[in-house]
Amino acid sequence: MYSPNPSCESQENLQEEVICTLFYLIPIAIVTWFGGRLLGIVVAIVNALAWAFADSSSGHTYSHTAIFYWNSTVVFGIFLVLTLLLSVLKDALEKQTALAFTDYLTGALNRRAFSDLLQMEIDRSKRYKHPFTVAYIDIDNFKQLNDKFGHRAGDLVLCTVADLARTQLRSTDLCARLGGDEFALFFPESGQEAAQIITSKIQLCLLGEMEKNKWPVTFSIGVLTFIDNIPHTVDEVIDLSDSLMYAVKNNGKDAIRYSIYTG
Ligand SMILES: Nc1nc2c(ncn2[C@@H]2O[C@H](COP(=O)(O)OP(=O)(O)OP(=O)(O)O)[C@@H](O)[C@H]2O)c(=O)[nH]1
To answer: What range defines the domain where residue 198 resides?
Structure first.
């Protein structure tokens, strides 16, 4: 004759409870990950209340009523910890992902991301025979500014340059910090005339802001348009634009030079 083993029965009950509690975690995890910390906390509270309600209506008896409240609090604590851990993990992941593509200081694209995107644009422009323009911007006398006003002021200038340039750009344009005090802008589908309008506007805007803050720097800018015989590699495109910017530097700084690449 079959006689149920009480310890086996209680083990099965325990297993059921654990699995049910785990099910509460799934919506909390999903909402926290996709909806954010605040929504996650709301769902954690709702789920903890649901858990307490289900527990009390299941006929579960405790040797002391305080145990029910203690268990409910522990369950809520677990839900809350999961919410907080997941939101911290997501923030960290987002930061890491952003750092892989952007410059930590200015938020502009970093050299690697800029090169990858530019390579795609070069391939597209070559295939469809569309022009594009690259503007290479170097801050003049930046070292002196750092020396006179401090590194933090220098950082602020770099951030201001990136922010101002970005406010003037279209969503399809790119803005990157290539290193130190050097920035590059990319204008797809833009010939020299269109690039002239936008770069002179950016230059005016930058100079105005520098003057307003009494930062003694100017900008040397080389703007190179590619129409035919577009080079194959990003490095060539960047080096050519850099050389044009250097021509401005060697000619007294604080100016823009435009050119069309002819191969
Ligand atoms: N504040 C700050 N300074 C930086 C950063 N990265 C590089 N620099 C400084 O930028 C300066 C760049 O110096 P240079 O390339 O000689 O530039 P410059 O003084 O503008 O000289 P010209 O370009 O000839 O006008 C160096 O002093 C670097 O230390 C940064 O992230 N923050």
So the answer is: 111-261
